[in-house]
Amino acid sequence: MNALKNPRLLGMLAVVIVLAAAPIFFAEQNYAMRVVTVGMCAAIAVYGLNIILGFTGQLSLAQGGFFGIGAYGVGLLTTDFDWSFWSAFIVTIIGTAAVGYLCGLIALRTKDEYFAIFTMAIGFIIFLVISRWESVTHAHSGVNNVKFPEGGGIIDFESPVAMFYLVFVILLICIYVTHAIRRSSVGRTLLTIRTSEDLADAIGVRVGFSKQLAFAASAVLGGIGGGLYATVVGFIGPDSASIDKTFEFLMFILVGGMGTVAGPLLGSMIVTFLFELFQDFQAYRFIVLGPIIVALVIFAPRGIIGYLGGIVDRRSRKQKIAEARRTADGASPEYDTAKSGTVTSGIDPEETK
Amino acid sequence: MTLLEIRDLGKRFGGLDAVKDVSLDVEEGRITAVIGPNGAGKSTLFNLIHGYYRPTSGSVTFKGDDITNSSPHHAVADGIARTFQTTHLFDDSTLLENVLAGRIVRSKSTIFDAVFHTPRHRRESRINKDKAMEALEFCEIDTHRHDLASNVPQEVQKRTAVAMALATEPELLLLDEPAGGIPEEETTDFGNLIRSLPKRGVSVLLVEHKMSMIMGLADTILVLDHGQKLALGTPAEIQSNPDVIRAYLGSTAEEKK
Predict the structure, then answer these.
(1) For a disulfide at A71, which of A216, A230, A251, B61, Cβ 3.0-4.6 Å?
(2) pLDDT at A335 > cutoff 80
(3) How far apart are alpha carbons B157 and B149 in whole angstroms?
(4) pLDDT value of position A349
């Protein structure tokens, strides 16, 4: 019953239920279904970005590259090598984990803006390999007829609704894992690193190792998103690994809110919707989207969820502070009088009630 | 028993000896202080002990194990915690969350425990919360536990830094100017907090500028000047040591003699 009082959980539930119900409204419109499903694939990759950027505070610009590795891994293995989707998917996930871990070994020797530039270079190298290595990746002709997931005779994944729910379930798992990380000591470790690496070091956090794991985990989620994207769309070209993808993901997370549980999902859905809305304007859509993002960065730098979460946090903290004061009043009045000078100095006592 | 043994420790930055040939024994259950003028190498010494810098010579031994070249997170895991001269806290987090961060080093549960919500994870979360609360109570700031670190007075922030360090369950606590920036009238309270640490099984090594506080607090004092040992002894011995008086009052004191 406590859960019903938690506005954060309620909000998350509302978004998930709306999304889960989407096929009821769009089931007959294959195009709309596909747009939402592709948006969810991107959201999975954005949850990856959330781990390294939102939690750990390292701006990785290689996420589009890992998305591309995921897409091409599944794409090439199911077509040229004729593997089943599931085996290709699993091998691709392991592959992106390995590539992510190795890239992290070098990239994480750098810090801050150098890390951003370095990972951008990694993303660009991945894009170049995919767009130029014609004998393997077919370069600009792309990969056609990526296999649908095998349903084992029970589910037919050729139906857009079945595909929608497949991506939806994997997305839910990503959301739950994000939630679990956030409230565990693992999340506390990453947030500690984000705030201050020196302080993290001083309280015994294994900074390098934790960053390494966070980077590998973000790469894995990028790969999962990419792999699903390949099977949803059926055709992939080099632009699925391009640097534009990275900045798309970055926009999703900025709009939704970095380091939050619901932010990547909400951001991905809203921006995908806006992209579709301005589809007709093509190159001009950024004239409208640009100011929206500028306004967001100025007025809600922590994104939509970060902004709402801030309000919720302040309110619950006020309650807790007032409660702590009350119990302190009852339990040890002499302590309170001794300290009252410092206790009330910063906070207006009226406000806490 | 000697907890920490420093032998001929040295650190060169380019051509400058920040710390040179410093030896010091930190006894268990005692408060040991390091004093000296600005730039005497006090903070560098701390950074060397805690593994933030690699020494260029000498050795550091903790509980009989050589930790000369170990990294800070190993030092914390071994039982050496520290606070910084400028208070380092997580400003956007509450005091309780800050102190909980100190529990990370003692947490064994992995991401899988968190995802599957295993009994180990639940047990550990509970223990962490209890230990953090205990550290907050010990530092007498538990009524502030839901306040943001950036919203509380300087003295409470300093106490939070100590509580965070205590949450790592150290045997030795390195305090770098714990009373720096605290109004004079509150240093007595803070001194009492430091004095109560050895009773809790935490030995203390501290750097401090406030002489009045040090003299009433420390069992042993090491005086550093230009990175080298100037004197070592009890507060009474240090106060009457002519070398120390000269270093602190400058050469004019000598000329006047």
Answers:
(1) A230
(2) no
(3) 7
(4) 36
Give yes or no for B101 touching A (CB within 8 A): yes
Other CB atoms within 10 A of residue B54 CB:
12
- The two most distant CA atoms of chain A are separated, in Å, by 80
Are residues A188 and B81, on separate chains, in Cβ contact within 8 Å? no
Residues A21, A25, A26: CA angle, nearest 5 degrees: 105
Longest dimension (CA), chain B: 75
Domains along chain B with CATH numbers: 1-79+170-257 (3.40.50.300), 91-167 (no CATH)
pLDDT digits (tens, 9 = 90+) for B130-162: 999 999 999 998 888 888 888 888 889 999 999
Chain A residue with minimal CA distance to B163? A203
Topology classification of domain A2-310: ABC transporter involved in vitamin B12 uptake, BtuC (1.10.3470)
User: Residue A3 — very low, low, confident or very high, per pLDDT cuts 50/70/90?
Assistant: low
Residue from the list A181, A207, A324 with its beta carbon closest to the beta carbon of B114: A181
The whole-model pTM stands at 0.83
- Separation between Cα atoms, residue A224 and residue A167, nearest integer Å: 10
Within 123-152 of B, beta carbons closer than 8 Å to A belong to 124-125, 128, 140, 142-148, 151-152
Instruction: Give, in order, the Cα–Cα distances in Å from A120 to each of A87, A125, A244, A278, A283.
Output: 30, 9, 11, 28, 24
Mean pLDDT of all residues in chain A? 83
- The answer to whether B82 contacts chain A (CB < 8 Å) is yes
Segments of B134-210 assigned E as strands: 172-176, 203-207
Q: Which of A181, A185, A201 sits opposite B103 (nearest CB)?
A: A185
List pLDDT tens digits, range A28-37: 777 888 888 9
What CA–CA distances, in Å, run from A281 to A192, A201, A288, B32?
A: 43, 50, 10, 72
Q: Give the domain ranges of chain A.
A: 2-310
Query: In B25-169, which ranges are continuous DSSP H helix?
Result: 42-50, 72-78, 95-101, 111-116, 119-138, 154-167
Residues of A with CB under 8 A from a CB of B: 176-177, 180-181, 183-189, 191-192, 195-196, 198-199, 201-207, 317, 320-321, 324-325, 328, 335-336, 339, 342-343, 345-347
Q: Is 50 exceeded by the pLDDT of residue B253?
A: no
CA A194 – CA A186 distance, rounded (Å) = 13
Q: How far is B189 from chain A (nearest CA, A)?
A: 11
* φ, ψ dihedrals at A190, nearest 5°: -65, -45
Cα of A319 to nearest chain B Cα, Å: 9
